[in-house]
Amino acid sequence: MEQTRFFLFTQLFNLWRSVRVGDARTWENERDLQTVVEDIIDDFPSMKLEEIALCFKAIRKGEVNIYGRLDTPTLLTAIRDYEDKHTVTYRENHHRAEVQARALQYAGHGRGMSVRDALAAVVSEMPRQKKTIADMGGSINLTEQEMLEIDNPKTNCE
Predict the structure, then answer these.
(1) What is the largest CA-CA distance in the chain?
(2) Model confidence pLDDT, tens digit, residues 77-100
């Protein structure tokens, strides 16, 4: 984990030194940059280091808008936008290609299936990712009593 922090710190330091935004900088020292590194690790646990480095490069090249500011909220928003635009699309395309390849392989093993049926079979065998209610944009309001009932369910064993 220390190597990850060091890599991100180095990349962030280079970004901080190379992007000119006037007086809009809010980071003043290495401790501030270390705090930003922790925020990046917390907010983007599934992003690869290479993806974050590419995002920083895109910011330096002016391909990702930071609205004339280089502070923590703006940087995190820029990384999130980059992730949505580039990495999510890449992962979806990679996943789609993988499913199609497995379906073709599945159909080609003498099962007498069409590619469409093989694709349906492969997709049905794949594990579904579980999502939390918050991931889906929802929330639940429970009373303390209801929380206790969830923690200690009553069983009807007669």
Answers:
(1) 74
(2) 999 998 888 877 777 777 777 877
Say if residues 57 and 18 touch (Cβ distance below 8 Å).
no
3 state SS of 70: strand
Q: Which of 34, 35, 83, 32 is nearest to 55 (CA)?
A: 83
| pLDDT mean by block of 10 residues, the chain; 158 residues | 92 88 74 94 90 92 86 92 81 77 68 69 66 68 77 58
Q: Which of 1, 29, 81 is nearest to 12 (CA)?
A: 29
* Residue 70 bridge partners (DSSP): 25
Own/partner long-range contacts of 71-76 (Cβ < 8 Å, ≥24 apart): 71/24, 71/25, 71/26, 71/27, 72/26, 72/27, 72/35, 72/36, 72/39, 75/36, 75/40, 76/39, 76/40, 76/43
50 with 92: CB under 8 angstroms? no
pLDDT of amino acid 128? 63
What number of helices (H) and strands (E) belong to the chain? 7, 0
pTM over 0.70: no
